[in-house]
Amino acid sequence: MTQSSTDFTQIHHATSEKEQEAAATASLQPPATQTVTSPANNQNCDILLGNFQIKKKRYRVLLNYDHIVWERLKAKKCSADTEAECYLKQGAVYGKHTNVLHINELIRVSKGNTKSAALRIEAPQPLAADFGAHIAGEQHNSNTPPTEQYLVLWYAERIVRSATDCNRWDVHKLVLYNADAYIVRQWHALLNKMLANTAPMRLRVRRLLVFINPYGGRKRGLHVYERHCKPLFQLAGIDASCIISQRSNQIRDILLSHDLTPFDAVCCVGGDGTVAEVINGLIFRAICDAGLDARQPPYVPKPALPVGIIPAGSTDTVAYSLHGTSDVRTAAIHLILGQQRGMDVCSVRNREGVIRFCASVLSYGYLGDVAAKSERYRWMGTKRYEFAGVKTFLKTLAMRRN
């Protein structure tokens, strides 16, 4: 949610209040959604414009093809035609205190008879393939008149505290009230339809395979997932299947041997070692699925599933490089919103072929000895690297003197 000075999308027609009242009394069907042509990209999009209450104050709310805009109504009332002309006027801009929310930052849309009912998180939302039938049934079920008057929008917002602390995200909610239940149902149906039809580069995950390393870092992987990630995944309606690893390379073996077609993405909760296992498993799985030699592939195909990285290790180098922070909720929000970013990997080979792939650090000599010896002192947390480094340095110095 940011302040903006972008021009409003031009609306060619606005339904008057008398026409809406006549349509509501004549039929149980909600008012028809106005379809217009956006002058920016010349594409058809649905436009809704209405008045809602937010924290017991009246706001004018506009929904266009990629934004939700709400602005406080002034005390002076205008007629419906005059009110619409303010937005229809070419070159009109957002007001100084106008709030703008991008559709891609929406996480969930819910409704209810009361505020508490609308805020209640129940069963996951329908899958993308079922949204069409779900919305059509909701719009055309004339035997059951709507009674919901509250509409809740759950969305993600970037937290900017300083020039260096500006990469964390958190979840907020916006509660809208309208006495006309038909309007609430219409907004709810259209917003859910827009969530189901997000851009291809922003994959909204519905089925997620989660690997949790309970031994990484300070052994808080399971706690991190249960406290921070699981509630957010439930809010977004994600069906998450969790596997708790018990040994080294178990995640890699599962990715190589099990059927991954039911899942939209893979998520790992752990440190850089857990990330390396997932990346190696997915790349070798892609090599095998392409019918290539795993030790001497002529090329390395791209894995079929994207990887979500939840930091729960000692250093979390990969997660920090991708998200700009080690905040767990930020990583989960990036996964929910489908924000993707490419990552380079390198391979380690010998005469026989590929040994493994790595995405963070490749080292030998002194740094390699430090990394290998630090595994004995994992109970020390991040301090084990400093301890192993000093110990290796003193041992190397003593060997040179001898």
TrEMBL record:
<dbReference type="GO" id="GO:0001729">
    <property type="term" value="F:ceramide kinase activity"/>
</dbReference>
<dbReference type="GO" id="GO:0006672">
    <property type="term" value="P:ceramide metabolic process"/>
</dbReference>
<feature type="compositionally biased region" description="Polar residues">
    <location>
        <begin position="26"/>
        <end position="40"/>
    </location>
</feature>
<feature type="region of interest" description="Disordered">
    <location>
        <begin position="1"/>
        <end position="40"/>
    </location>
</feature>
<dbReference type="InterPro" id="IPR050187">
    <property type="entry name" value="Lipid_Phosphate_FormReg"/>
</dbReference>
<protein>
    <submittedName>
        <fullName>(Mediterranean fruit fly) hypothetical protein</fullName>
    </submittedName>
</protein>
<feature type="domain" description="DAGKc">
    <location>
        <begin position="203"/>
        <end position="352"/>
    </location>
</feature>
<dbReference type="InterPro" id="IPR001206">
    <property type="entry name" value="Diacylglycerol_kinase_cat_dom"/>
</dbReference>
<feature type="compositionally biased region" description="Polar residues">
    <location>
        <begin position="1"/>
        <end position="13"/>
    </location>
</feature>
<dbReference type="Pfam" id="PF00781">
    <property type="entry name" value="DAGK_cat"/>
</dbReference>
<dbReference type="GO" id="GO:0016020">
    <property type="term" value="C:membrane"/>
</dbReference>
<dbReference type="InterPro" id="IPR016064">
    <property type="entry name" value="NAD/diacylglycerol_kinase_sf"/>
</dbReference>
<dbReference type="InterPro" id="IPR017438">
    <property type="entry name" value="ATP-NAD_kinase_N"/>
</dbReference>
